[in-house]
Amino acid sequence: MQFLLFYLFEFSIAQQIGGTSMESTHYDRRLFQQKQCYAPHQPKELDQSNYYITTQLIFRNQHDRLVTRVSSGAIDLNNTRPLGIDQASINITVDQQIVNDLTLYIQVIECIDCPYEVITQDLSSTKSIELTLNTKFNYRIRVELNPTSSCQDTLILYEHGYYRFDVKLSSTTNSTFQCLLTRQRSPNNVYIPLIVGGVILLVLFVACLVAQRFKFRTFLINLRNRVSDRVPPQESAQSYDLQSRAPVTTNNEADTSTATAKQQSAHEMSNVLVPRSKRLLSLDAFRGFTLIAMIFVNYGGGGYVQFEHAPWHGITIADVVFPFFVWMLGTSLVFSLKNAIDKDVSKKFLLKKIAVRTLKLLLIGFILNTRFKIDFAVVRFLGVLQRFGIVYGVIATIEVLCTRPKQYSLGTEISTGTNKAKQFLRLFRDILHFPLQWLINLALVLIWLLVVYLVPFENCPAGYLGPGGLHENGKYINCTGGITGYIDRMIFTEQHLYQYPTCRVVYGCKPPFDPENLFGALPTIFLAFLGVQAGRILAVYQTDVERLVRLFSWSILTTAIGVGLTAGTLTGGPMPLNKNLWTLSFSFFTAGLAFAGFSIMYILIDMLKWWNATPFQYPGSNSILIYITHLVFATYFPVQWQVVDTHAAHLAMGLWGCVFWIIVAYIFYKKRIFVVL
After folding, report:
1. Which residues, if any, are the signal sequence (predicted)?
2. 291 vs 388: CA distance, rounded Å
């Protein structure tokens, strides 16, 4: 039980910088002296043991501990000690008719396959206990005299609620107990600020659509031009047909057009806006939306558990942000490489550009890891941009080496044929024309499957996907992450991995584990390849119906495969959804969400043209710049500042951070400042 009390009372450091799939930034950097925190009443057999925590940082989210305060003695229902954010108090009392000491156990429901933990073994009618619990989690509580005399209940508590848990003798027999949970003071509804904020954002979005529908912006621009007597800028019309080609001009035509252009006045030329290279607005909007969601998560997400990463198995809103970026990496890659390959650009030149960009991503990611701790003896090597760079380097290299010129145009000449074989080729040419790419990516997936499920290591079995610690009653306490974690520890050593994985709070896992681990890059590459498949659909097929039918079909197929691999549970089955390990089921499931999300934006923006992608197109067209700067300036005013510790205040801070970077991205967009690697 020594590990138990250490686990229950240790500080949560899951919010430390770099602790999420995207580097979290909501923390307090105040250093303090090493401190001992003793449990007021240890279990009887542990009276001679000292339990304390040692930490070097105090984080804002100290409330992420499971049991944050324990006190024994006379019960005081009028306790006025203030509760913090996501905390509730429960007083456990024993009926006077029960004369023996009882043992109190608590199990965290989110801790899958974990045992009950002993809180105290001397609970009695003369010695009750008060617990302050973290309301982000749900609990099972059990009070036991012996295996045949016990009672248990499920605790679903809410912030700032005061509860009473009475243990009484059963009315039917004096040999069994009866547990009764009552509410002494009503809790807060922590979701009211989130609902209000969501309604406000929805109203603003609808107003934006209505204003665009009635051309309100055009009206304001024309009004400004009439007032200032200004010549309005003229933006060149440009099609979003991804198969379009620039018109071919002869030398004489080119000379004539050049001469004509030179005759235009400087005033006329200054009022012509030269558009950027042709972009798919819905893809920019989807990228921008994902980036803003990532900023909101990294800036605390209002302190809501839905915007934090799952402790281990399972999925939350925060868990889908990084996968969406990976999926869009593959989609965008098709557009950037297709034209270059069709124009017979040297593959050697393209491979050199890929290598340079990969090295830039790796270097920038490493530099971001050192922005608060420049100690090369313990610096973290892996990270978000490092994983992104590895995935980009591999998937782009595969596409360059395996794609032939005009390969995306093959098959269009048989579109009107009647032969069934030709019709089949036409129907699936986005897949059948790229067999080598499919074979290579499936081979990478097969390697991942064979290693994960067939290779044992040290005292850990093959196929273990758990977090170690308390999982499976502590049977594999040091097997955190299975073979995936073991590979990282062998290559990088524990000192250079992320020290506070998401499993530490709930499962009490001991070894360091990096969520952007090296071996997890293989299923991540496959997710990027599914994004490439979306890009091929957009490049090969020209009608909206053809594109959307295939995009939604892939969404249904990949989501079904992802859920099927978990046996329909998401947190169980042969391959649970797990972002830390980046399981193959996780890649399939998040790809399905990405296919669906992008398709919806494609309908609204590029098909129906009900929405011009504002404001998400601004951060979406400058994503790498906004990503880096939102991390670097996260602790500086006016990006963020200290607020009271409530969900409403943290939600306002998170939303303000999103608005701030949208404004910055808009300024860059208007000044035509775009940063690419």
Report:
1. 1-19
2. 14
Phi, psi of 372 (to 5 degrees): -120, -15
First to last CA, the chain: 52
Q: What pLDDT is stored for residue 66 in this prediction?
A: 54
Of 109-113, 229-233, 663-667, the range with the highest mean pLDDT is 663-667
Query: Could you tell me how many residues make up the chain?
Result: 677
Model confidence at 80, in pLDDT bands (50, 70, 90)? low
Beta-carbon count within 10 A of 166 CB: 15
Could you give the residue ranges of the DSSP H alpha helices within 299-346? 321-342
User: Look-up: residue for tokens 């009271």?
Assistant: 644
* Cα-based torsion angle of the residue sequence 24, 283, 440, 520 in order, rounded to the nearest 10 degrees: 10
Residue 155 clears pLDDT 70, i.e. is over it: yes
**Residues 65 and 135 sit within 8 Å (Cβ to Cβ):** no
DSSP-derived secondary structure letter, 607: I
Task: Round to whole Å and give the CA distance between 551 and 432.
Answer: 16
Question: What amino acid is encoded at 113 in this protein?
Answer: D
Q: CA 673, CA 665: separation in Å to the nearest integer?
A: 9
Q: Which residues pair with 304 in a beta bridge?
A: none
C-alpha–C-alpha distance, residues 418 and 426, integer Å: 11
Per DSSP, the residues of 439-507 read: HHHHHHHHHHHHHHHH--BTTB-TT--S--TTHHHHTTTT-TTHHHHHHHHHHH-GGGS-SS-THHHHH
Q: Within 13 A of 129's CA, how many CA atoms are on the CB side?
A: 24
Identify which of 581, 619, 582 has the alpha carbon closest to the alpha carbon of residue 290. 619
Tell me: pLDDT of 59 over 70: no
The band of 644, judged by pLDDT with boundaries at 50, 70 and 90, is: very high
Look at residue 100 in the predicted model and tell me its pLDDT: 82
Q: What are the E-state strand segments in 217-328?
A: 234-235, 272-273
Three-state DSSP class for 337? helix
Q: Tell me the residue type at 86.
A: D
Which candidate, 72, 139, 130, places its Cα nearest to that of 106?
Answer: 139
Domain boundaries, the chain: 67-188, 281-409+433-671
Q: What is the CA radius of gyration of the chain?
A: 29
Superfamily of domain 67-188: Immunoglobulins (2.60.40.10)
Beta bridge partners of 70: 131
What is the C-alpha separation between 630 and 626, in angstroms, rounded? 6
Structure tokens at 578: 């797990």
Nearest to 540 by CA among 435, 430, 437: 430
Q: How far is CA 165 from CA 153, 170, 235, in A?
A: 10, 15, 69
Does 239 score more than 70 pLDDT? no
